[in-house]
Amino acid sequence: MRLQDRFSITRRITLFTGVTATLLCALLATSVMLGVHRYASDTVTRELMAAGGRVAVELERGQLTYPLVEYKSRDLQVVDPSGRVVAATARMQGKPRMARFVPPDTRNSVTCVVCGDVFPAAQCDIVVAQWAHRMGERWMVYSASPVVPPWVDPWLATLVGASAAVLAAAITYVGFRNVRASLRPVDTIRAELDEINGNCPSRRVPVPATDDEIRAMAESVNRTLSRLDGALQQVQSALRHQRQFVSNASHDLRTPIAAMRAEVEDGLLAPEETSVPQLGSVLLPSLDRLQAIVHDLLTLDRLDHGMRGDQSRLDLAGLVSAELCNRRHPAKRVESTLAPGVVVVGDRVSLARLLTNLLDNAERHAKTTITVSVRHEPGEDHGAAVLEVADDGPGIDRDKREWVFDRFTRLDAARSRNAGGAGLGLAIARQIAEIHAGSLKIEDSPVGARFVLRLPAVPAAPAAADDGLPT
């Protein structure tokens, strides 16, 4: 099992910090001891050279004084030209010369480390050999001192080692505290995430004040939660609309079915009082209503899946004029103002359905007159093609203007069966407008309701306005 699988981030970083700090402090302690050892060895060598040089000067003057050295750990020997030891310190009395090497002719002294021999077993000494000139002869002065041990002094080694250990422990502890402090916001974020559920989707994780990766992570988490909250609200809204849709659809489908069932049951109970033509004339309106609702539901399903018909260049005024001519025996007077040359790209069947739905809605609510107009509105690119359908009816309150575009929505005045409509016409009209990259809204009007359709306009073709050619 790997280390990252067995230990937490805090333990791994603390362990890494501790090992690294220990190695670095050990290296630092070793470097300090090596430096001190080098300095101590150089100091001992200089002292030996100074002590040997003093004896050599006294020897040259013939004034050799005793004791030869001032420190107990120092040993000296004076060797005459024949190699005989003529003077020595107390520990070197009666012993042969401590070394056989001599300085080269170009130098006055030389240093070497000598182990064993005249020195105690397993002991190495620093030996300095120096020339002394007396009565034209060269004498040799040897000065020696035990080699400085690597630890130099036990107390010094203990102090340096203890300091290195304390420093490593301090660095490890500071690293542990720093990691804990850095990861504390992560624990807070995790605890907050554990508390967030469907009952409190608007809650967000706390964002630390530090400008580091954890703050960026917290902000990213909050952005993700915001998107999820928005998606959840959309899903909940869609579910509410779906439930409302199913409820309204079942009601509107059940009404004509119940009416037809009642008529059929009456005919079965009293067959002598009715006839097939009479029963058919009663059932056909309910069947027409049922067929219209099913057709509208299929149309909405097709629009929901983004299905689009054949796209072609259409003269909006020509399309509106043709649809107005196709409406036979209109119940209300229709006045039109159609500006030619207003061209759009779209599906003729869908746009004709949109106009029919607007005209049907206006006809149900107008008192006497319906006004239809087509015009071009300047704007970005090629501007917009504007179709307006207005009536002189009671109008629609400002706070209900968006509500009427919901599916199966009918205002109180239009809820009777005689008024017609299932509340899907305007929803279908708006969805057709949006599929054509346009908009359908209810705008202010002095009287009645004014529906305004805006579609992206395109330049008019050089030939006929409605050429039916695909874009």
Overall number of structural domains: 3
Strand portion, in percent? 15-25%
CATH class of the largest domain: Alpha Beta
CATH superfamily of the largest domain: Histidine kinase-like ATPase, C-terminal domain
Assembly classification: single chain
The biggest sheet amounts to: 7 strands, mixed
Structural class: alpha+beta
In whole angstroms, how far apart are the ends?
64 Å
Low-confidence stretches: 413-420, 463-471
Radius of gyration: 55 Å
The general outline is: rod-shaped
Number of extended strands:
12
**Number of helical runs?**
8
Indicate the topology.
Layout: H1 3-6, H2 9-61, E1 75-79, E2 85-88, E3 109-115, E4 124-134, E5 137-146, H3 154-195, H4 213-269, H5 276-304, E6 312-315, H6 316-326, E7 333-338, E8 343-346, H7 348-365, E9 369-377, E10 384-391, H8 425-435, E11 439-443, E12 450-458
Helix pairs in contact: 2-3, 4-5, 5-8, 7-8
Structure notes:
Helices cover 48% and strands 17% of the residues. It is of the alpha+beta class. The protein folds into 3 domains: 10-154, Beta-Lactamase, CATH 3.30.450; 197-307, Helix Hairpins (Orthogonal Bundle), CATH 1.10.287; 312-458, Histidine kinase-like ATPase, C-terminal domain (Heat Shock Protein 90, 2-Layer Sandwich). The strands form 2 sheets. Strands 6, 7, 8, 9, 10, 11 and 12 form a 7-stranded mixed beta sheet that branches. Strands 2-1-5-4-3 form a 5-stranded antiparallel beta sheet, covered by helices on one side. It is rod-shaped and about 165 Å long. It starts with a helix and ends in a 13-residue tail after the last strand.
